[in-house]
Structure formats: C-alpha cells, structure tokens
Amino acid sequence: MQPLHFDQINPVTGTLFTFGDANLRFVNGIGMFLEKGDPGYVPYPNETPVPVKKKKPFRRRAKSQTATEPEPIAFNTMSTFKYNTRQNPQGGFTTRVVLGEPVTDAALLGLISGTANTTPQIAEDVIRALATHVKACSAGCAYTRNFLGVLGFQPTSGGSAESPDGFHNAADINADIAISLLRESIDGWQGTLTLEHMGELGKVTPVIDSLINQATGALNIYTAGDLMQARGNNLKFNRANPLEGIFLTNAAGVETRCTVYADIEPLTFTFLIPPGTTGAQTVRMCAFISGSLRTFTYNAQITTV
C-alpha cells in the first residue's frame, strides 16, 4: 500500500487514478492505493503493468543526541581569548572581551562546508532554512532547549507600558527570539581556551606617545647626556620620589632611573639621558596616581643610531 498524491498516475494502467477505483483506500484520513500482492487488491481489466522507475530513497544516518561536535577548522584571527578587567558597579571587578577581526560570510561558510563535507552554497541554504523555521516555530510560541545536542531557542517578550492594555503590537511587547548553545557545549568550549589579560579598563595610567631628541628633533634617537622630551597623557609625577620617573633598561636587563627632569606637566616633560648610556634601551615610566603606583612601557626602544 502506497500514499496517493494529487494527479498521480496508476502504475498498472498508466492513467490517472479515478474516484471509483476499487484499489483506493482512506487510512486515518490519508489517501492510499493497493499494490499487486496487497490483501484486497482488485486486478484491472486487461491488466498490463507499466514499469515505474523508483528512485532509491536517500537515508541519512541519524546523529546521536550526545555525539561529539566536529573539531572546528582553525580560523587565524586571534590565538587567545583576550579580555579586559574593569570595576563592577555592584562591587569587585568584571571582564569584557577584546574583539578581534569580524569573520566574513565567505570565510565562515567555507569553514562550515569544509567541516560538513558539502559546498558553501548548500551550507548557506541550510543555515537560511534553519533561521526561517526557527522564526516560524517561534511565531507559534514553539521552542526547543536541545536541538541535536547543540543549541536551543525560544520566543521571548518584554517591553513596558503605563497600563496592562498599553501593548498593541509585537514591537510594543518587544517580541524576540533567544538562541543559544547548550550549556554543556559552552562548558567544553571554555576548557579549550587560552586566556590573555589585556589590562584594566578605566584605570588611569601614564601614557607616552612619543620621545623626541631635543637637540636633533629625531624620534626615539638619543645621545647620552642630551635632553629628550616625552609627550603623552597623565605624565605628572614627583621628581623627588625614586619610585617615579623614567627608567631605562638595556639589553642585559640592567635598569637605570633618569634623575634630571624639567617642565613636568600632564602632557609633556623633559629628561636627561644619563651620561654613559649606550645601546638600545627600553623606556618605562612610573607615576603615583590616585594613591597607587601606575606603570607604562613605551611601545618602542630608543637607540643611538
């Protein structure tokens, strides 16, 4: 017995099925037709079977709900998960991710199709179909918290009004759809991350933008015994405090504090390169700000050539 479709050709007679056909049946409201060999089949006059070419059905192996997710193809945007820390208004500290480069549609489709062993176009069609049906399900308030052991979605609402009858359309109730990866998937992903702390946000520190030789005007080029001018922000410090000021570190790791300063202002100051200084030097500045010692390392070395 096979399902009956509109305008279907009888495979035995080669003509359209008719309403009075003795081999038609309704099973649970679904039209069916009997085939030769089925109980109750009535042969047709001068029956001459017409060969019907049947397509071999495509069967995809069902994936286990607990199957391991495929290993992602490396996408060389960031080698580590980078983040900043900042003060939490409710107390303590929290973090904020440092975003890298955005992933293009072509790159992401290439990764997905490569993992699924298909083409980028098929991957795009499947993703668009998924989005369409997630919206369609959510329109009827249907949801799932575990789709293929990977993600879940559900419709949400919110909005605000002066009275209970102040909501008139979907925009008023802020109708939306929440889509998220399963907690188990996120937990496993977290275990693969390499973290890099990129510093504290909102914490004022001295910042040197440039170092200029006052005798020659050259950037990042010094002569021992000459003056250099530092330009930047939050540069005010106490020249008498040995913990503050400019510190030079040579290739051997020996650090020397500059002791002669002039014109110390928030945006600029001048300092003397100690006599006898040679070779490439890493420049570090320290200043007490809001009760704590803040440090900044200049982004380039200064040299004599």
Q: How would you sum up the global shape?
A: elongated
Q: Main β-sheet, in a few words?
A: 4 strands, antiparallel
The CATH architecture assignment of the largest domain turns out to be Irregular
Q: What name goes with the CATH superfamily of the largest domain?
A: IHF-like DNA-binding proteins
What's the number of structural domains? 3
Strand content: 25-35%
The number of strands is 17
Q: Helix count, per DSSP? A: 3
CATH topology of the largest domain: HU Protein, Chain A
| CATH class group of the largest domain | Few Secondary Structures
* H-E order: EEEEEHHEEEHEEEEEEEEE
Strands of the widest sheet, in order across it, are 10-11-15-14
Weakly predicted, low-confidence segments:
none
Give the helix level as a range of percent: 10-25%
Q: Radius of gyration, rounded?
A: 37 Å
Kindly report the average pLDDT value.
86
User: Helix/strand-derived class?
Assistant: alpha+beta
**First-to-last CA distance:** 92 Å
